[in-house]
Amino acid sequence: MKIYTRTGDEGKTGLIDGSRVSKDNLRVAAYGDVDELNAVLGVVKAHSQDKFLSDLIHQIQRDLLALGAQLADPKAKIGTRKAKAAFPEAQVKKLERAIDQRDVVLPPLTAFILPGGSPLGSFLHLARTVCRRAERTVISLSHEQKVEPVFTVYLNRLSDLLFVLARHANQTSGAPEDRW
């Protein structure tokens, strides 16, 4: 199988149902933003020495591939045909447990903090902002087409988790939080 197919040379791409749409279609933008988030999380994982964090990021990356597959399927059938593409609401609860696990050891927030700190904390802050963009794009798509509500809930909770993980990474490394 060749990497290049030439089928996208005219600015069109194929969706899972076989339909072809413009590469600037909102559905394509939504799963593209989710894919970008997944790539940034790969950078996070590559810079992590924390097994808990690496394992958590690995599971989130799998979730994001499933989410992207669902977004690439306008007929919403991939989740029922392929178990790994299913996206149950239980994934949100897993994120909430991870937030609670790390947040309990952090000092309470008393001000906004500037993104940065350690390299790992900075990458997590970057992932958080990409996650927020993906969330906004999925919400925009939901105004035009049916999108499962769990997708935006998941992305919202994931951005919260990434914020907590950034704070935790900075605390663990001894990097101070720069308050605004």
Keywords:
single chain, 180 residues, 6 helices
Tell me what you see in this structure:
This protein is mainly alpha-helical and 180 residues long. The protein has helices spanning 26-46, 51-71, 78-81, 90-103, 119-144, 149-173; strands at 12-14, 20-22. It has a two-stranded antiparallel sheet. Strand 1 (12-14) and strand 2 form a beta hairpin. Helix 4 runs parallel beside helix 6 (149-173) and helix 5 packs antiparallel against helix 6. The longest helix is centred in the C-terminal third of the chain and has 26 residues, at 119-144. The mean pLDDT is 93.
Strand content: under 5%
Overall spatial form: elongated
Spans where pLDDT lies below 50 across 5 or more residues: none
How far the N terminus sits from the C terminus, by CA atoms, comes to 52 Å
Number of helices: 6
User: How do the strands line up in the largest sheet?
Assistant: 1-2
Largest sheet: 2 strands, antiparallel
Tell how many strands the DSSP assignment holds.
2
The percent of residues in helical segments reads: 55-70%
How confident is the prediction overall: mean pLDDT? 93
